[in-house]
Specification:
about 160 residues, elongated, 7 strands, alpha+beta
Length: about 160
């Protein structure tokens, strides 16, 4: 009886240690994947910034997940969602940077073919009621306080995720 209890205890201890090791391994893998994604996004943003001569160190980067969830960024979320809806498969999720000193916002976009796009907006504190259009598409009134200044395109590098190690 004592041997079977001892054997069962040892078997359970081994089983839990193997499960614990497997979970730790999965967590380590997730950390590595998140680091690679962050490095990839940084490489993409730096390529776009160099195309338009922008110093990202002078700007505050906004987390796109926070922008899409937070009521505080409702106007910015609408702008970013409109950009994302126009993206094709393989395009990189846009990055959002704020120039708080000049009340400007930069949305950096990279297309799958390597084309870099800079969307530049200025803060409109009055929140105008004017209808906004992009091309022939009406994007609604600009009550959220951001006015599009320009959208520029430039040839950039195709950055493959596999390049990031």
């Amino acid at each position: 009886m004592k041997k079977s209890v001892l054997f069962s205890g040892i078997a359970l201890a081994l089983a839990f240690s193997v499960i614990g090791y497997a979970n730790a391994s999965k967590q380590d893998d997730m950390v590595i994947v998140k680091q690679r994604i962050a490095e990839f996004k940084e490489k993409v943003d730096n390529d776009i910034a160099s195309s338009f001569d922008i110093n990202l160190d002078d700007l505050k980067k906004l987390d796109h997940k926070e922008v899409l969830k937070s009521e505080e960024y409702k106007g910015i979320a609408k702008i970013v969602m409109n950009i994302m809806l126009e993206q094709a498969n393989g395009d990189v999720v846009p990055s959002i940077y704020m120039d708080e000193e000049n009340n400007e916002m930069y949305i950096l976009e990279k297309q799958a073919d390597g084309t870099n796009i800079l969307h530049k907006y200025s803060k409109n504190n009055e929140g105008s009621d004017t209808q906004r259009t992009v091309g022939a598409k009406n994007i609604g009134t600009d009550k959220e306080g951001w006015n599009e200044i320009s959208t520029e395109k430039s040839e950039g590098k195709i950055i493959d995720f596999e390049e990031v190690k």
